[in-house]
Amino acid sequence: MLELTKIEAEIVKMLAETSKINREARWYPLFAAAALIGAGAALAKLFM
Fold this sequence. Notes:
Distance between the termini: 70 Å
Number of strands: 0
Helix content: over 70%
Shape: rod-shaped
Low-confidence stretches: none
Oligomer: single chain
Largest sheet: none
Structural class: mainly alpha
Radius of gyration: 21 Å
Mean pLDDT: 94
Strand content: under 5%
């Protein structure tokens, strides 16, 4: 019974971690685009 409880706790933990990763992955393209725009603006300012 104790082993089953441990396994259930691990499953809950893994589901929570998966949910967190999925939430973070949703924002990744936004941050990547912002970084590219910032780099482009910095290069444009450097050469103007």
